[in-house]
């Protein structure tokens, strides 16, 4: 798979994360970790970075399923993109 669609999807996800309102500290910390992992993949794509990001995306998708369903859907789409890389 061409990395361009993944790169574009990660950029969109990063922007969405910036605009996601969170109330609790656990959610805020998870979003910060996710944003850092996205930046790592965008700056230095590697198998290890993809694996770390995928794990964090799985955790975040489950965490935000009820409170931020649109975000959870986007996270799952990124997981699908990563599976194709």
Q: What would you say this structure looks like, in words?
A:
By secondary structure, the protein is an all-alpha fold. The chain has one domain. Helices cover 81% and strands 0% of the residues. It is built from 4 helices and no strands. The longest helix has 19 residues. The N and C termini lie close together (5 Å).
Q: Concise description?
A:
With 85 residues, the protein is an all-alpha fold. It contains four helices and no strands.
How is the secondary structure organized here?
Layout: H1 3-18, H2 25-43, H3 47-64, H4 69-84
Key features?
81% helix; 0% strand; globular; 4 helices; mainly alpha; 85 residues; single chain
**Chain-averaged pLDDT:** 84
Helix content percent band: over 70%
Question: How do the SSEs run, as a string of H and E?
Answer: HHHH
Low-confidence stretches: none
Number of strands: 0
Q: What fraction of the residues are assigned to beta strands by DSSP?
A: under 5%
User: The biggest beta sheet, please?
Assistant: none
Radius of gyration: 12 Å
Give the N-terminus to C-terminus distance in angstroms.
Answer: 5 Å
DSSP summary: helix tally: 4
Give the structural class.
mainly alpha
Q: Indicate how many domains the architecture comprises.
A: 1
Q: What is the molecular shape?
A: globular
